[in-house]
Design a protein that fits this description.
Helices cover 39% and strands 18% of the residues. It has 11 helices and 12 strands. An 8-stranded parallel beta barrel has the order 1-4-5-8-9-10-11-12, surrounded by 8 helices. Strand 8, helix 5 and strand 9 form a beta-alpha-beta unit. It starts with 11 loop residues before the first helix and ends with a helix. 47% of the residues are buried.
């Protein structure tokens, strides 16, 4: 007997009925870059369509995303060099850029999920995610600073804090600090599997946050490793993480599947700046159809196991899915 799987592909209606994976805007988080000023939009050359936005335009754009069904945004502050120092002291300033942006978003859009990045690199004069001491990143000096940063963000109104630094023990320290300060309802999205990837270049241009010396390989993970990723997952889960992040996205879809199979927690994937930029560049050269390609890549991340996708294409994809 000839088996005919094609019978299940004969029409759009049939394909829809048997489709195994769905894609919808309520799974997206929109990463956004905030800068000082008013009515200021600074395009990011390596990320066509993306820009650093002043707080007023940030709120306006977040409202657009929310109206399209995108439930949340992830914030990253672009600071001037005069606000940066080796220990990132600006990160805990209650009147700092990020905290003002959080308050503005929650005032204008109370139901919007606001996710804040916990790492020193936007605030550090060294450009690292931790404190640089005698030529190395000092884990144990850094962790209390990250915990204080998370509390400052929660106090401003953040719904979820997202430590992206990859320091050992920081999830437990942040959970303890949040609880002690009365923020036991604030969640933690742990970047538990963050690789030392070449795909972060456009992001570092956006924030001017590249290391001033050395690299991040002593704290971000070796792209060759998977078992190590599962160890990180177990640790962050035990320390109190609410979501688990795998970053980058599509180049690490195999890792994403391993993480999904290991944990019952929600798993997020970050379609990083380099992934977005590649699709934009190829489309601008006429080499592929951007609309079809972006939806396909997002669907692939969902199929690999992502419950939540951080993507710079959130607004574009939401419009395409409408």
């Amino acid at each position: 007997m000839l088996v005919r799987p094609r019978r299940n592909r004969l029409s759009p209606q049939m394909r829809g009925l048997v489709r195994e994976t769905s894609l919808s805007p309520d799974r997206f988080i929109y990463p956004m870059f905030v800068q000082e000023g008013e009515a200021q939009r600074t395009p990011i050359s390596s990320m066509p369509g993306q820009a650093r936005l002043s707080v007023d335009l940030l709120v306006e754009t977040a409202a657009q995303a929310f109206a399209l069904g995108v439930p949340g945004v992830a914030l990253f502050p672009a600071l001037s060099d005069d606000l940066k120092d080796p220990r990132g002291t600006e990160s805990t300033n209650s009147q700092g850029l990020l905290q003002r942006a959080v308050r503005a978003l929650k005032a204008a859009l109370p139901s919007l999920l606001v996710i804040t990045d916990v790492a020193l690199d936007p605030y550090s004069s060294d450009g690292h995610d931790g404190v640089l001491l005698d030529g190395r990143i000092d884990n144990d000096i850094t962790v209390p600073i990250l915990a204080q940063m998370a509390v400052a963000q929660a106090r401003a109104g953040a719904d979820i804090v997202a430590p992206s630094d990859m320091m050992d023990g920081r999830v437990g320290a942040i959970r303890s600090a949040l609880d002690a300060a009365g923020f036991n309802q604030v969640g933690i999205c742990a970047y538990c599997v963050k690789y030392a990837s070449a795909f972060y270049g456009p992001f570092r241009e956006a924030l001017d946050s590249a290391p001033r010396g050395g690299d991040k390989k002593t704290y971000q993970m070796d792209p060759a490793n998977v078992r190590e990723a599962l160890r990180e997952v177990r640790l962050d889960e035990a320390e109190g993480a609410d979501w688990l992040m795998v970053k980058p996205g599509l180049p690490y879809a195999d890792v994403l599947r391993h993480v999904r199979d290991l944990t019952a927690l929600p798993v997020a994937s970050y379609q990083v700046s380099g992934e977005y930029a590649m699709l934009k560049a190829a489309a601008q050269n006429g080499w592929l159809d951007y609309d079809k390609s972006i939806l396909e890549t997002l669907l692939c991340l969902r199929r690999a196991g992502a419950d939540i996708i951080f993507t710079y294409a959130a607004i574009e994809a939401a419009k395409l899915l409408a």
